[in-house]
Amino acid sequence: MLMRIITLIHRWVGALMGIVLVVLGLSGAVLVHKDAWTSVPHKYDAVERNAQHIGTFVTHVMNAEGKSPQMIVFASPSLGVNRLAHADGRGEYADQTGHVLVSWTSDWSRPELWLVTLHRYLFMRPQGETYVGVAGLIGILMVITGSVLWWRTRKTFEFRLWPKRFSRAAIIRHHRDLGIIIAPLLLLSFMTGVLMVFRPLGGIAFGPGTSAALTHSLKPPVYPHVKMGRDLNWVSMMETAQQQFPEAEFRSLALPRKESGLITLRMRQPDEWLPNGRTMLWFAADTGHLIEARDARSMSLQARLFNDVFPVHAAKIGGLFYRIVMTLSGVGLALLGVFAIWTFWTAGNKKEAKKPKHKPA
C-alpha cells in the first residue's frame, strides 16, 4: 500500500511539475557557461585591478551624460568588461577605460540577462523566486521517492543515458536508471537552490542561528538618508578600499537604494568562493568618507558556509570539470522531465487495446 502511494505521488507530481523542472534544468545548464557564450567585444581583456584606474573609470561613468547607473559590476577573469545597470532597466557593457560597447533598454535585449530572470524568477519577479524555491522542494521530493521506487528494481539496473527504444516500458526503465545515476547531482542542485530562496532552512543545513548570523553579517551600518554628493572623489574611495584589503579584487559598486545613505562596494578576497565576494565597504553618499569595512573572513563559520551555497549551485568553483558536472545535472533533469511528461500524458494513461482473438476456423 505504501509503495503504491509513493508511486502515485511520484507519477502525478512529476507529470504536473515536470515542465517547470525541465525549464529550470535546461536554463541552469546553459547559465553555468554564461560568461563563455556572452557576446560582447573586449570580453577577453585582462582585468585591471589598480585602484586609481578603477576610480577613474567610476568617475567617468558617474559624470557621463544622463542618469548615473545604479550598479556597476566590474570586470572579472571570465568576462573582461564592466556591466552598468540602471534603475529603469537600461544597461551597458563598457570596456575598462569607460568606452560603452553595447547598450540595451531592457533585459529582454540580452539573452544572458533574461535567462537569469527565467531561471531565478520564471519571468515573475519578485514572487517567482518563491515559486522556484517550491519547485526545488518538489524536486527533492521527486529524487527521494524515485530512489525508493528504484530500489525495488535495482537488480535490473543498467547504465544508460538514452532509452533503448521509444516504447513506454523502455522509457520508464531509462527514467528509473538515469534518475538514480544523477540523483546525487540533482539533490545538490535542488538543495543549494532551495537554501538560496528560503534562508531560514540554512539552520537545518548549517546549524541553528544560521539565518540570524547571515543577517547580522550583511546588515549595513547605521547612517542617515542623505542625497548623493555631486563631486565625490571616487579615486580616493577606491584607494581607501584597496588599502583596507590589499589582496582583494573590486567586484561591484552600488549607489544608495530607498532610504539608504550609503554607497556599497563589494570586494572578493582570494580565498572567497562567492564570485562577487562578501568583503564589503560602505561609504557616505554625501561625502564619500568610509563608514565601515567588513572582511568576509571575519564572518561566523555559518555565514561563510552559507556564502558558498551559490558558487556550488552555479558551478563557480572547480573549473571546467565541475561546470560539466553541473551541466549534466541540468540536462539530465530535463531528460527525466521530458520523458516523464511524454509517458504520462501520451502513453501513461492509455490502456493498450486488446487484440481481437481469432476464432479457429
Automatic annotation (TrEMBL):
Keywords: Membrane, Transmembrane, Transmembrane helix. This is PepSY-associated TM helix domain protein. InterPro entries: PepSY-ass_TM. It comes from Acetobacter tropicalis. The keyword Transmembrane applies. The chain crosses the membrane at residues 12-32, 131-151, 178-198, 320-345. It comes from the Bacteria. Signal peptide: none annotated.
